[in-house]
Amino acid sequence: MKLKFYIPLLLGILFSANVKAQDVAIKTNLLYDATATVNLGVEVGLAPKWTLDISGNINAWNVKEEARWRHWLAQPEARYWFCDRFSRHFIGFHAIGGQYNVGGIENNISFLGSDFSNLSEKRYQGWAVGAGVAYGYAFILGKHWNLELELGVGYAYFNYDIFSCTGCGKRVGAGDHNYFGPTKAAINLVYVF
Hints:
This protein is mostly beta strands. It has 2 helices and 10 strands, in the order H-E-H-E-E-E-E-E-E-E-E-E.
């Protein structure tokens, strides 16, 4: 239902703007591509040094039979460019929202107060929201092609139900988690119109 609201909003922003050279770009995050996560971003020029980047991704399949790595994520970001937009240094202020269903992933990882080893034996299904700040740099590769590197930090709140195994429906608990740390990592291949 939320998706029905955001798609017309995105299309309205894109088509209400006066589209001309270097006002719109589309992109894909190669890091997400490497994890078989389908993703697409659209960036629209708002002012000489400001753009609005809206990216989303979805992973709707299982890694293997006993493991889940399903999620969708939307991440709008306002960007301030220190030079011309779509060129060189920028800072971004992003929001995060999505849903997930993960579990059955063998690991011993504990990172910044988050214990991911719990994903080995249990499945977590829920939603998350957050916000952060990012720094990035766009390399101009050609007339229409750029390569962006971006890293962001911030806060995310997770709310979830816990299941005893990846394939069963037996709920064994619920919880929430507050996360502070990296909230965005991107190596974007960008096509600028």
